[in-house]
From TrEMBL:
<protein>
    <recommendedName>
        <fullName>histidine kinase</fullName>
    </recommendedName>
</protein>
<feature type="domain" description="Histidine kinase">
    <location>
        <begin position="1"/>
        <end position="145"/>
    </location>
</feature>
């Protein structure tokens, strides 16, 4: 169950939250798992750990899942440091680290891996970010594996 998977990862990450940080979840009750659970986990954990790392104490992190037709959407929204507009085009490049993140630990690999996984399963990832206001990532997961899609066409 996809919602359960998200909930488990959120529970695992609770201990890494900064003081007063809190996850707010909006999850559908019954959302069957689709796609490789390891890929889903990797995508989710990278987005959630970024949201924790790049936002401040006492801020909420919104995690929302919904479904439209044969796609499942995951949105992770934070009210953190945001990504400078002039650097946003490089966000998914290997080793990219924004200049406003210099004092926070990171290798700049997480999002590159996320992007490659999302491409691999023919999903989509987009983001909206404003410096010092926050960042929202939206991932679209196709519910079918590529092979199954081919069969049904
Ligand atoms: P790691 O490889 O450990 O994940 P990282 O977090 O630096 O290191 P990415 O997850 O790939 O690497 O993120 C790349 C850069 O994008 C970050 O260094 C940061 O500058 C910016 N970034 C990513 N997510 C956010 C976010 N939610 N808010 C603000 N900046 C972000
Ligand atoms: Mg990261």
């Amino acid at each position: 169950n996809f919602s359960q998977l998200v909930r488990n990862m959120v529970d695992d990450l609770e201990e890494h939250l900064k003081d007063g940080q809190e996850f707010q979840l909006v999850l559908p009750d019954d959302q069957p798992v689709f796609q490789d659970p390891n890929i889903l986990r990797n995508v989710i954990i990278n987005l959630l750990t970024n949201a924790i790392k790049y936002s401040h104490e006492n801020q909420e992190i919104m995690v929302k899942v919904w479904e439209i037709r044969n796609r499942v959407f995951l949105e992770v929204q934070d009210y953190g440091i945001g990504i400078p507009e002039e650097e946003q085009a490089q966000l998914f490049e290997r080793f990219f680290r924004a200049k406003n993140a210099f004092n926070l630990q990171g290798t700049g690999l997480g999002l590159n891996i996320v992007k490659r996984y999302v491409d691999l399963i023919h999903g989509k990832i987009s983001f909206f970010s404003r410096e010092q206001e926050g960042t929202t990532f939206t991932v679209q997961f196709p519910k079918k594996f590529k092979n199954e899609e081919n069969i049904s066409h």
